[in-house]
Amino acid sequence: MHETAVVAGLMRILTERAAAAEIERIVSVRLKIGRLRGLDSRQIRGAFELFAEGTPAEGARLDIDEVAIEAVCLTCGTVYTVPGWRFECPSCGGNDADTRTGRELHVESFEGTRRAAAVDESPEG
Prior knowledge:
Keywords: Metal-binding, Nickel, Zinc. The chain is 25% helix and 33% strand. The protein is of the alpha+beta class. Strands 2-1-6 form a three-stranded mixed beta sheet. It has a three-stranded antiparallel beta sheet with strand order 4-3-5, with no helix packed on it. It starts with a helix and ends in an 11-residue tail after the last strand.
């Protein structure tokens, strides 16, 4: 199950970025995952929930943007969205293509709440 390895890396990145930004609690995370990655969004969500326990991301909302596969035909130059996994140019029928999108796998953004600043309530403060 390669989704768990992906989520383990994701949690490492999130906790490092949150700590650097002095974020105490992560409330939402947005991922971009290209279809060519072959990842199951349901398994990503389940693993995220498990790995988030006891971390600043516990209870965070996870949004996943699935990126379609877009290719450019090397024969005629047509740019097209690949239906399913069939790399066949709709213009010339060629199957020699370069992918433009569909390999993405990254944290697009996350939101959180910062630690409250210490307040000096002494009479001199």
